[in-house]
Request: fold
Amino acid sequence: MGVSRDDIVTQMRDALLISDPEVDTSVGTPLRKILDAVANSLADAYVENHLLSYAYDIDSKIDADLDAFTSLFGISRIPARRAIGSVTFSRTGDLTATVFIPVGTEVAASSDSALIVQLVTGATLMPGSTSVTVPVQAVAAGPEGNLGAGVATVITSPIQGVNSVVNTAALTGGTSRETDTELRARWKATVFRSMAGTEQMYLGVALDDTDCYAAQVVGSSKTRSEILQVPVSGNTVAQISDAKYIYSSPVQVMKADGTPLVKDYDYTWVPTNPPQIAGLSSTFPASGELLTVDYQYLPTVSRNDPATNITNRVDLFTGGTRAQAAQASVVFKADKKWQTVSTLDLYTGHWLRADQTRPEALNVFIPLPFGPILSVPTTLTVGATTYGRATKANPLGTVTGGITYAYQIVHEDTVQGWTPMSRFGLEWHRNYLPVNGSSFVVGGAGDYTYNEVPASVQDAVNRWRLVGIDAKVHQAKQRWLRFALGVMYTSSSTGSAASVQDAIRTALSDYLNRMGFNSNVQISDVLAVIHQVPGVDNCRLLHGGDVTGYNSSNPNASVVGVQQIAPDSTSNSAALASYVESSTGRAKDIYFKDDELPVLGGVVFKTLARNSFGVL
Reply:
């Protein structure tokens, strides 16, 4: 802040009054003229110094001023991003016609016509096909576009021959633009640094892709910091759950007041998995006291292996999708079958279906060339048989309506998987196989799409990485979370509960999209996010006491707390996993690995009031 000339003159006169009370500094005297001249120079210097400090002080800049400053260094604010997903167009009755669905066709949410998505590729309903799945993106950027499964059901401009449309899975990836605080932090972490081959370089390359909203770098090691409480007896055990390898050094253990403890004098570091801390001296904290522990580990998702001296691999995980249409000519071969022996190539435990389950032994693997895969045709005609993509309504191995539901998407789920060059394709049911050697086309109508983001980022990384570094870009694995909420509404919003619920979904989606990799969803944070939504008076997670017939031995069977669901599940579908205390069904915190991102899969609401909030 600047200082005025009059302020400076007053300060000098006050100082002279103390040191020499007889000096005359009144207006018009020679001394006063000197004081005025000096004060003018000092005031100008204050202003120049303030402007100079402001010009290079990033913490004082906001909005457009901050954007202009960071752009001088080649760093731009990450903009809001549009949600991505797919919709399925269906028809009934006459199946003989060929129906063209043009690119840009808009589909709106049934509950809010303002929430619109548009097709990013065109599609064709071929004769005999009852449906086709097409990639879409939200028209407007931001978390509002993250629509839940089954929400987009209105074709804004009806298409002749199409009866209905629905998004069987939620739209994800819509995020708010980078905040001032986030932009400042990223600028400080990258500017003026030699970045070639560093973690910040890989992150910067990934986030430069317009559709990548999150990134995670895993090299030969990562630093983990934990706050642990010393038990009454036994060693203090770290809470890490996703380590492939624990390093014996470096490690630092400190008391709660910041006093460091000396390794092998105050404590012993036991690099087991998980690692343990054994106290040795009287200076080691007593039971109940807190320890801060920093140590190095190798995540399970890394391709490195210190035991065999492989430490030059970098794995970059990316969140976000950009659908790219593809086409492949396939010759059916039935020689590649999944097995239950872990040492064999097609071990079922090393593969994952789109619904998050494992393939079945003896089913056949048909590889496809482009991936990670987002969608495949809902039907494929091989010879005289029409085969269908398995869904929740029509599971793998069922025959109905003249369609044999015999295939579904599958990806290699190992440290080598989920890259543009890894393995992915179709799992084909062993009892419904086409004739060996049969030819067919996948994607002739533009309904075979893959995620282009990993391939695009891989190309950029290859231009930046250091010689000798093996860097691979992976698509993130998403964990779709469903929240079971009991909500009390304010008196002014009870009549518009639906709009409040939409706002809660948007707030939760934005919160999850900002979590990033290797994060944890804390229940206290979830409740705080919901409490900030206008119209919410009180809220809590539903538990076993809210559900008639809750079975503590099978919490997945009840909608309680927070649960993981399949991407194409509806709100009342059975859970794949429940993050609850099984005896009570009360929600507990959720921890994610280095290759996992949380995504809002759905919200189940139960209206409560003051007299029922703490009873049910």
Q: What stands out?
A: Residues 350 and 413 are 5 Å apart (CA to CA). Residues 5-56 form one domain. The mean pLDDT is 87. The radius of gyration is 30 Å.
